[in-house]
Amino acid sequence: MTCGKRLVDGGSFGHSVHAGRWHGDAVVHVFGAGQVRRYLRQVRALTQVRHENLVLYMGAAVVEGGPYSIVTNPVRAESLSSRLVSHTPLVAFFSVFFV
Fold first, then answer.
1. d(Cα 7, Cα 28) in Å, to the nearest integer?
2. What is the pTM of this model?
């Protein structure tokens, strides 16, 4: 696995996020030593779910005395917030039926 340039200044939980490569494109979430509990919660949650609309958990890495990492696939879809701002309906109004 290779970890490249930083994608974002910090993840949504205060960790850093990097571009990486592992059997193709990957995203590497790097947690510091003070974030062990948060890291373990994230690993536990990601290993228990698998759905096409969620990021794919590809693995985790622990380096003794070093950072803790979670490897996921990159999200290529449009974010929910940008979809809501664009005001583009996902479903035509009249195509929704009530049963």
1. 10
2. 0.68
What Rg, from alpha-carbon coordinates, does the chain have?
A: 17
pLDDT in tens, 9-36: 455 666 888 888 888 888 888 888 888 8
Q: Where do the structural domains in the chain lie, given as residue ranges?
A: 2-95
Per the structure block, which two tokens stand in for 82?
């940008």
Fold of 2-95: Phosphorylase Kinase; domain 1 (3.30.200)
d(CA 81, CA 75) in angstroms, rounded, equals 14
Q: What is the mean pLDDT of the chain?
A: 78
CB of 1 closer than 8 Å to CB of 20: yes
